[in-house]
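Entry:
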Amino acid sequence: MTIAGVKSPTRRPVSLRSNRTRSFWLIGMVALLALLCGLSVTVGTREVGWADIVAGLAGQLDSIGQAAVNVRIPRTLLAALAGAALGLAGAIMQGVTRNPLADPGILGVNMGASLAVVVGVAWFDMASADAYIWTAILGAGCSAVFVYVIGSLGRGGATPLKLALAGAATSVAFSSMVIAVVLPRADIAGGIRSWQIGGVGGATFERIFPVLPFLAAGFAISLLLARKLNSLALGDELAAGLGERVAVARAVAALGAILLCGATTAVCGPIGFLGLVVPHVCRLLVGVDHRWLLPLSTLGGACLLLAADIVGRIVARPAELDVGIVTALVGAPFFIWIVRRQRVREL
């Protein structure tokens, strides 16, 4: 209500204020990522000085410190890429299924990729990087379809609780199948067990380059679907009324997530809980708008995996903890909190 002769005070639109806040969090996450990349290069079982860091970044290998920096550079790159891929994949899966418990690990996608790779190695002597990647993506896709079909059976269709239970059961079954496949093969058992924990140690540019096209495709597909995911969040009927082809949007979004999960699992092994934790934290910061949530989840995933890798190097010196162990220690309590907060009985 305005009074004659008195100008009402101007107010900035709420959307403008919220967008500025979101921009602040996005810029802050970029700065945090840069800081963690620097720490990842400098922190490890061996302390290195700035002179060795600069020389190592330039490619020199004249000292042990420079060699250590040279080894940590691809490890840092792989941790950032893998974390970004899993964080984005988790946000996509939660958006597609409208399931707060969706995660590449909980829904069995990562374990499906893992089983496919293990079968390829044990039964078909698979060795090439391209074969690893294609096999992991195929396994992730088949697992995702299987879990969705099982979770859709019965009254009510694919509810969040049914999908989470189907995914958990599938993960356990696939994990048992992995053990059954590996047991008769003592020659590969050690390497498979180490890979199954999930880690970025031993990364090289030769391991990273083959997976880049698949990750690039997954990132592009997923990030371009933000508006469609916003429409899907309104419900299938309303999204269809707005002109969205619901089935096509879901399928394309799932393809992007599968590419990200499969490619990451092929090079790092199955890393759990990161895709669950990151989107929930980012949603608290920027809300449910996927135009902001997806980029922030991408950056947040990279930050979390880099931080987990750094912590794993420090807490067990002179040995190291793989990032899969660190993310599980963080993610398991978070998963329990999410289940209690969302009142699983009502899902």
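Residues 86 and 261 are 6 Å apart (CA to CA).
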